[in-house]
Fold:
Amino acid sequence: MHALIVLAHPDPKSLTHAVAAQIADGVQGNGRNSFEIADLAAEGFDPRFTKNDIAVHLREAEPASGIVAEQARIGRADTLVLVYPVYWWSMPGLLKGWIDRVFTNGWAYSEGADGRLVKKLDHLPVHLVALGGADLRTYARHGYFGAMKTQIDHGIFGYCGAPVVTSELLVPPASDSHFETARRIGGGLFAAALSADAA
Structure:
């Protein structure tokens, strides 16, 4: 089985990159699974939502070739993993722009003329791994993590029907436990499928 690991951090030496690498190691742990890392910053993905993107949303134009390529990359995956730092209590603009442009009307969901919503990504399990800069008490005291789950888990992926299997928040201090958690997440991405194969 194949995982697409998407990360959004401009520094290849960042903790975000290191955590993504540990998830990838976990995916390959049994030697039967594969992964692809989509490093949005290194690849130069343009997150700007343009007039053409509006036309795509209104179903008046086709997505740009780069967007179609991103959709195909997701289509080849059996699961999607997003790894990102928390910026202003949410995901970075680069990752949000990737979602804005790639998860299009007609591909991730459909809005019919009657206003009925059709969720089109119910086949795609999603795993979210956020790296925060504040401690858990701060997130709990202000309700930040709950707000993030509402916005991202429910607001984005729930809208498209993609089940969020993991919603993990890693907070300071950075330690080996972050890497252990990341390897565990990677190793467990396809555990249910492997159990079914063994049965």
Summary: The mean pLDDT is 93.
